[in-house]
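During the no-cost extension, the postdoctoral fellow (Dr. R.K.) reprocessed legacy sequence entries with the updated structure-token encoder. One reprocessed record is reproduced below for audit purposes.
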Amino acid sequence: MERMTLLGHEKQLEHLKRQVDSGELSHALLFSGPEGIGKKKTALLLTEYIFKTVSHEAAKLFSKGVLPDFLLIEAETTIKVEAIREAVRFAQERPLYSSKKVLLIDDAHKMNTQAQNKILKTLEEPPSFLSIILISSNASGLLDTVRSRLLTYTFEILSEEEVFSALPLAHAEEDRRLAARFSAGSISRAMQILEDADLRELFYKPEEIFEALYLNDRLSLVRISREYKDDRRRASLLLEHCLMWLRDLSLFRKHGEPLSLYYPDKRSELARQSRWMGFDCASSVAVVEQAKARLESNAPAGAVLLAVFLRLAGSLS
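Re-encoded structure tokens follow.
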């Protein structure tokens, strides 16, 4: 297992370590918060600390990723009851290398109802040697009966500067700034942005879109809608950034020189567009949000984008 460092949740981890030292750590924890902000890393560092306190050999095996007293359950889509049956068997067997075992379930909200019901008895009556950690970015997806048996720790998003400072220096500062700005407080999302040039280009498409709207350049609008016709997720992300661009335009209209912008590096372009565009920001935002909702209902991405561009063209002059 690679050496891990934690950013932004050090106090949370130190509190948990003190709970381990005092013997007061709850047997079943829920780490809840947005995706990609360090919940799993915190859970793994806590697990490492638990094993370090009881057995040097167990800690060494854990660091190599071969400790049989540790079980990680995860899945891309659904965590089914078969996986939880394995977890229950693991929980019932005594540890081999120390006095502790740790069961970690990542994206626990992906457990189907049968799987969640299967884990209940283990949560209610865990053996004294077992620590259980559930991680979720959607805690409401867990049954009330499951959540009520867990001690919840809520993880907040990281600041833009915290994300920026965590990104590899091998990337250009301009790209790191961009990735941190649009990361929504998630280091993993920032890394995705850094590693995907097409994604970084998408973030600046709104400038091109609104320029085409002003010029009534229908061919450019058709071309852009076709670029994303086969990728509903990126089409939705494009609309999300159109909302950000609209928000910045609105601030320029109201305040002339706003301090806080999604696109601070595009001040001159935003100022220019805000001067020549006459639009009702609220109605334009509503149009874009309706289009996002249509994408979520599986409407064709290309058709949705072209329709929203043409509707915006009718509201801008």
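The mean pLDDT is 91. The domain at 197-315 is CATH 1.20.272 (Zinc Finger, Delta Prime; domain 3). The remaining legacy entries will be reprocessed before the final report is submitted.
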